[in-house]
Design goal:
Length: 47
Amino acid sequence: DMKSTKEEIQTIKTLLKDSRTAKYHKRLQIVLFCLMGKSYKEIIELL
């Protein structure tokens, strides 16, 4: 469902702006890239 994916992406982007969630940022970025359809190899290169 594209709508829920868009909402999830927006939620993660909001969390990434929050310094209180800093220790989770790398994990959140991985989830974000997965939701955006990036391959595992691309994700490794981006991080």
